[in-house]
């Protein structure tokens, strides 16, 4: 029987390092270092209207499991509504995004395989010293910085159509 020198991980509810990015709160439950690089898992809390720009991962498959709220996913040109209990798998290389289309915050789990992409959030986001509200931004997000940081982690964010 094969053994591992990694230890088991346990986080109680509400625990895990958190960051704010584009108004969404990401709380990391398992990072690559915890799983020997196999995967990373985080919980996302997205306010009404929240969600990232369309993007694709060149290295990771990504899955979403909706716990609360109403999301709309665009995956490879198809739009799908996703309420609590919905599962979405996005293979690497597939353009995708999500948007909270409900009137309340949406809460969902995200897994990337293999792990490592979570480092993007730590670099691009702001540490969540207050999980109840995002930090106040001075002006619009720095899109060039976001695109460059994403590219560093194998994620492509194309310019919006017409630009």
UniProtKB/TrEMBL annotation:
<dbReference type="InterPro" id="IPR013096">
    <property type="entry name" value="Cupin_2"/>
</dbReference>
<dbReference type="InterPro" id="IPR053146">
    <property type="entry name" value="QDO-like"/>
</dbReference>
<dbReference type="InterPro" id="IPR014710">
    <property type="entry name" value="RmlC-like_jellyroll"/>
</dbReference>
<feature type="domain" description="Cupin type-2">
    <location>
        <begin position="47"/>
        <end position="111"/>
    </location>
</feature>
<protein>
    <submittedName>
        <fullName>Cupin domain-containing protein</fullName>
    </submittedName>
</protein>
<dbReference type="Pfam" id="PF07883">
    <property type="entry name" value="Cupin_2"/>
</dbReference>
<dbReference type="InterPro" id="IPR011051">
    <property type="entry name" value="RmlC_Cupin_sf"/>
</dbReference>
């Amino acid at each position: 029987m094969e053994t591992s020198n990694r230890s088991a991980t346990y986080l109680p509810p509400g625990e895990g390092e958190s960051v704010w990015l584009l108004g969404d709160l990401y709380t990391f439950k398992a990072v690559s270092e915890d799983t020997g690089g196999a995967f990373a898992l985080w919980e996302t809390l997205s306010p009404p209207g929240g969600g990232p720009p369309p993007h694709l991962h060149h290295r990771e498959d990504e899955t979403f499991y909706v716990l609360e709220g109403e999301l709309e996913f665009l995956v490879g040109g198809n739009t799908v509504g996703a309420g609590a209990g919905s599962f979405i798998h996005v293979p690497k290389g597939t353009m995708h995004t999500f948007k909270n289309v409900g009137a309340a915050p949406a809460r969902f789990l995200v897994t990337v395989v293999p792990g490592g992409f979570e480092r993007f959030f730590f670099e691009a986001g702001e540490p969540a010293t207050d999980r109840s509200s995002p930090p106040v931004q001075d002006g619009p997000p720095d899109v060039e910085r976001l695109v460059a940081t994403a590219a560093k982690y194998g994620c492509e964010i194309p310019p919006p159509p017409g630009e």
